[in-house]
């Protein structure tokens, strides 16, 4: 570093050099004077701390050096020390006569945040001046890049973090970056942000997976991230984060039908197309590329058929022989092209018909979910049952073939728009409980002379819907049983029948509990409908308990019906008669006349009512009376009266 002095000394030396009068003697004297000033300045007697905000215009007054002089000290001239590289000489304008400090240019805290120098008076008083440049919010937090692409595999675990480049802000403390937020594009709140301040005061940023990512539902997100500082008003910066959800092989191919059917002639030529299977895979790229093949281990080892691996078109590979095999079952596999492929199977049933070579050919595809000839009884008129494509090898013109439909009792009809593709549809409402299958025959007749025809017969099965509730054999049942039976004793069996089939026709029984009818005395087997006692019965509590039985089928939604069962309890002698009191005390005068009634007692039996007994006096020194009551069941109750001849006798019953 190089120390320089500013002020009159510097001006004098400059003038001497300009006029050429600067000799060694003069320079020596001036050097000695300056050395004296420097020696005196080594003891700092005053300090002055100043501050101003950055970005103030040039010429802004910063402060007055005189404010840093000790009290009572004045100065008319200051020598200013300036160390090269400190910016004092370039950024500040210091008046050495007045001591006023001004900015020489617009100051930038991010370039230099502090200035210091020493001012020395002519008397040797020194003032150490420190100027602090204060930060203002003149910078916005900015991301390193305006747009970033981030690739995240689907089904990444929730909570997984991905580090992003943080925003930088040249300001400091509260005015630097304070936080981040997702401004837009966060569909379904799939992501959230987390930030953490590092030891270097940088606010680092992580993108956190907040929900399960499914590429098949959403393959990309365009998030607008915003950074903000702590200014007021705060400054912000933005970045677009393009999140690409990368596919994993999490879906297997799915056939549009689980089973396919076709009817072909044995005269079909090799290379002819039979039918096309189709499977789709929701994955993308190789994970979603579906390839087809026939599983030779499980089907068609003789290679009668081949399938195009890309289109799924099944083609006849060599001639068929109806007499050798009438039906061919193929297992067609659809696999994706992933490194670890997913595989799905579909079944293809090909019926071979023994037709002459010149007969028309038909291919029938049933439009049920599993490709079999069936239709729901709930199908509405107009709903399609099967698709028929026809051809005549003789003529090669499909329009020459007429297709007709027989059977079905008017429940089914045939339609076409181009005489090439025919559709069988429901013409009238179906009721499986009335009829569960229909025999149909499709005939294709050409225009030859004599005409030849091809026909196909099949049975359409009408599948069930839950349209019938269970019905009891009786709406009301009545059964008499003794009141004294053990729990679990048989009472009655109820039966309900449901016209539907399968789970729709499965009937389950239950009791509708009602404490007022004592239905909790009984239980019912949910399958057989057998009602048994669940606890002891009591005629005296309720001689005619009642049960409401509910029969529910297994449909979705289920249907139900109820029946009432009246139980008549037969009373049994299961209660002892009891007196109104267990103890009677009577006082009699000793001269009471014989035959005098002195007490009447009463007893009670829940089954029987009986009157009491009376007793009277007799003559004698001692006597006793015993009364008994014998109930029909054999229960005996009684009271005894004993007395001695005393002036006043007490009789106890």
TrEMBL record:
One annotated Gene Ontology cellular component of this protein: plasma membrane
Membrane topology: Single-pass type I membrane protein
Domain Cadherin: 44-143, 144-255, 256-362, 375-472, 473-579
Protein localization: Cell membrane
Gene Ontology BP annotations: anatomical structure morphogenesis; homophilic cell adhesion via plasma membrane adhesion molecules
GO molecular function per UniProt: calcium ion binding
The protein's name: Protocadherin-16-like
Organism: Scleropages formosus (Asian bonytongue)
Annotated InterPro entries: Cadherin-like_dom (IPR002126), Cadherin-like_sf (IPR015919), Cadherin_CS (IPR020894), Protocadherin/Cadherin-CA (IPR050174)
PANTHER family according to UniProt: CADHERIN-87A (PTHR24028), PROTOCADHERIN-16-LIKE (PTHR24028:SF345)
Pfam short name (any one): Cadherin
Assigned keywords, A-Z: Calcium, Cell adhesion, Cell membrane, Glycoprotein, Membrane, Repeat, Signal, Transmembrane, Transmembrane helix
